Amino acid sequence: MKRRTFDKLLSSVGFVMTAVLVVAGILLMWGYSFANSNVHNQLAEQKIYFPPLGSKALASSEIGPYLNQYAGQQLLTGPQAEAYANHFIDVHLSEVANGQTYAQVSTQAQADPTNTKLAGEVNTLFKGETLRGLLLEAYAFWQIGQIALDAAIAAFTGAFIMLVLSVLGLIHLSRASPKAEI
């Protein structure tokens, strides 16, 4: 195979790969933007606020170290949603019904439908575990967006490298002898 043919072929493939990586990067950036804005907007609509700094709600060693950094802020991001779900709601839910879950207490309440204490615990646990689950889903969706951002950066970096290599291939092509063989 002639060297010039080889250089043309590799440079062409490099330019195609550059285009593919740029398109992939654009789509990944769109995914990141969609996930980030969707999580922000959905959480903003809930109007959840962290307790203010120094409040009794943050005094617990199971809560304060994780939530003090967000004290008084509105819950708007994935990391905030995870912290609130795991270190505020979950801690409070563990205080209901001796740490039993909704499923456990609900089973007991179905066996004893006249027990108003169990019915109240079922109601509290259902609402708390549902909110906790929704916040953790928001965190997971946000995390997927962060992965898309990292992948977009990698795609754009790869595109830049492929573009440089393809241009260098064209430069080599212009300098290669028409008679040179590989």
What is the SS-derived class?
mainly alpha
Low-confidence stretches: none
Query: What overall geometry do the principal axes of the alpha carbons give?
Result: elongated
Number of domains: 1
Instruction: Say how many strands there are.
Output: 0
Q: How would a textbook summarize the main sheet? A: none
Structure in words:
The protein has 182 residues and is an all-alpha fold. It has five helices and no strands. It has helices at 3-46, 64-67, 78-93, 102-111, 116-175. Helix 1 (3-46) runs antiparallel to helix 5 (116-175) and helix 4 (102-111) runs antiparallel to helix 5. The protein is elongated, with a radius of gyration of 28 Å.
